[in-house]
């Protein structure tokens, strides 16, 4: 058989070139900026969450109180209330020096550093109320930073870089969480090994995390203001401050609520990550109760957990690019629910390093996939740069309801049922979100959204 000239001249390395192009997008400056801001967003969450719970458990605080501490995440559910201020108002000095989004970024990060340092000075054993207040301040400043980072990400990335940006953001976000969980635990152990007391060791561990927030600050200073944000700012420059706030708030709500099946979509946003949050609230206390040491948990979270997070983040980006939005949501929703069975199995096996590694890997891998796809869905719902921060904050605040309120009783459930049954229940709590997903799919909700746009 003779070959045609076209076949003879066809470059055999074309498939590899397409792979190079696919990976090259992750090295684009805008994507790298989003990656570093994702780390900055993920860093403080565990400091008022799972890491704080380990500190409290070591201090002798009971499981019921630990479970109730999920309520300090309330600012993540209410941040949409002050998001219009971020969209509409200028921060004196900061906005003039850095711009609309970057000014708020730097301002929120400065306040976040102060809040973490304040939490570092508390003592869970003696004053849980002050610990709660400190954690509440960290959550408030962290959620404010999230408002700005989310708006910056959605506005700065063109459609061709959205999938890479979301994958990078989520992977870096979870790395930030790993640093503020496993990293803090290692630091506390290292400080204790020098002879200082446990309370002081925890204080210095938190102080180091406060210093690491500066990574986000340097990134914000190195970034450029999104073009869409600058145009939106120019369009509203003549309006009074109060008028801008009202327009940002009203526009964000009205534009979303006039869509078909808006209330069902909002319920889906609340429930999609609930299975992840319900089990995640008690993962650290479970591992400690099972008999693992703090360093066992930290080593596995930082090692295989970090690898699983990175792989899961980029796998989620691939799924988001390869499949439709609704198919991707099915994949992420089912995987993140089933991963809880790994912890039920661990509870049955007992203290086993390999079993812990498998469970942590499954949780981080599937959680990263689910989060990337969920971020893609939320981004598809936000289309107007005049109130991106408000609209995205509303959606992520609703998503935080599962983590903050619905999961606040997880400690009491674990006490009543035992760990094995608790993690089986964690799988079952995903069923309502999957039912809603099927209902919205049948009514064409996801077809109307189209591809992720800016």
Fill in the keyword field for this structure.
0% strand; AmpG_permease/AT-1; transmembrane helix; MFS_trans_sf; MFS; transmembrane transporter activity
Helix and strand topology:
Blueprint: H1 5-9, H2 14-24, H3 29-42, H4 50-58, H5 63-68, H6 74-78, H7 83-88, H8 94-98, H9 100-120, H10 128-156, H11 159-193, H12 198-212, H13 214-222, H14 227-235, H15 241-257, H16 262-271, H17 274-290, H18 294-322, H19 325-338, H20 340-349, H21 353-381, H22 388-406, H23 410-417, H24 419-428, H25 431-442, H26 445-449
GO molecular function: transmembrane transporter activity
Protein name: MFS transporter
Transmembrane segments: 31-56, 63-83, 103-122, 129-149, 169-191, 203-221, 265-288, 300-320, 327-348, 354-380, 392-413, 419-440
Notes on the structure:
By secondary structure, the chain is an all-alpha fold. The protein has 26 helices and no strands. The longest helix is centred in the middle third of the chain and has 35 residues. It is globular. The N terminus is likely disordered.
Mean pLDDT: 81
Percent in strands? under 5%
Helix content: over 70%
- In the CATH hierarchy, the third-tier topology is known as Growth Hormone, Chain: A
Q: Which stretches are poorly predicted, pLDDT < 50 over at least 5 residues? A: 1-17
What does the radius of gyration come to?
22 Å
Task: Let me know the largest β-sheet.
Answer: none
Query: How do the SSEs run, as a string of H and E?
Result: HHHHHHHHHHHHHHHHHHHHHHHHHH
How many structural domains in the coordinates?
1
Query: What global shape is seen?
Result: globular
CATH C-level label: Mainly Alpha
**Based on the structure, what is the oligomeric state of the protein chains?**
single chain
Distance between the termini: 50 Å
Q: How many beta-strand elements?
A: 0
Number of helices: 26
CATH superfamily: MFS general substrate transporter like domains
Protein name: MFS transporter
GO molecular function: transmembrane transporter activity
Pfam families: MFS_1
Subcellular location: Membrane
């Amino acid at each position: 058989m003779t070959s045609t000239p076209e076949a003879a001249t066809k470059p055999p390395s074309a498939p590899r070139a397409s792979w190079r192009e696919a990976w090259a997008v992750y090295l684009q400056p805008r994507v790298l900026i989003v990656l570093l801001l994702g780390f900055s967003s993920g860093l403080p969450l565990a400091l008022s969450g799972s890491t704080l719970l380990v500190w409290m458990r070591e201090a002798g605080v009971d499981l019921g109180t630990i479970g109730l501490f999920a309520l300090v995440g309330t600012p993540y559910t209410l941040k949409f209330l002050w998001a219009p201020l971020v969209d509409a108002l200028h921060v004196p000095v900061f906005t003039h020096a850095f711009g609309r989004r970057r000014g708020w970024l730097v301002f929120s990060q400065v306040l976040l550093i102060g809040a973490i340092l304040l939490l570092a000075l508390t003592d869970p054993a003696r004053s849980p109320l002050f610990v709660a207040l400190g954690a509440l301040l960290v959550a408030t400043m962290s959620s404010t930073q999230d408002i700005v980072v989310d708006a910056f990400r959605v506005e700065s990335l063109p459609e061709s870089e959205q999938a890479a940006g979301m994958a990078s953001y989520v992977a870096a976000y979870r790395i930030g969480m790993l640093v503020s969980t496993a990293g803090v635990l290692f630091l506390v152990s290292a400080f204790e090994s020098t002879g200082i007391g446990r309370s002081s060791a925890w204080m210095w561990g938190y102080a180091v995390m406060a210093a690491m927030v500066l990574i986000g600050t340097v990134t914000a200073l190195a970034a450029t203001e999104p073009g869409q944000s600058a145009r939106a700012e120019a369009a509203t420059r003549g309006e009074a401050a109060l008028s801008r706030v009202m327009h940002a708030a009203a526009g964000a709500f009205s534009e979303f609520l006039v869509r078909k099946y808006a209330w069902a979509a909002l319920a889906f946003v609340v429930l999609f990550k609930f299975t992840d949050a319900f089990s995640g609230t008690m993962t650290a206390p479970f591992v400690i109760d099972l008999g693992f040491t703090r360093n066992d948990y930290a080593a596995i979270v930082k090692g295989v957990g970090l690898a699983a997070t990175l792989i899961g983040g980029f796998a989620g980006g691939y799924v988001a690019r390869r499949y439709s939005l609704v198919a991707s949501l099915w994949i992420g929703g089912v995987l993140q629910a089933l991963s809880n069975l790994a912890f039920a199995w661990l509870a049955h096996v007992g203290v086993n390093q390999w079993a812990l590694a498998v469970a942590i890997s499954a949780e981080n891998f599937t959680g990263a996939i689910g989060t990337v796809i969920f971020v893609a869905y939320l981004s598809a719902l936000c289309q107007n740069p005049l109130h991106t921060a408000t609209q995205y904050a509303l959606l992520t605040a609703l998503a935080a309801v599962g983590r903050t309120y619905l999961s606040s009783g997880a400690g009491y459930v674990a006490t009543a049922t035992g760990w094995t049954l608790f993690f089986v229940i964690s799988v079952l709590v995903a069923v309502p979100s999957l039912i809603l997903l099927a209902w919205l799919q049948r009514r064409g909700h996801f077809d109307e959204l189209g591809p992720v746009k800016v």
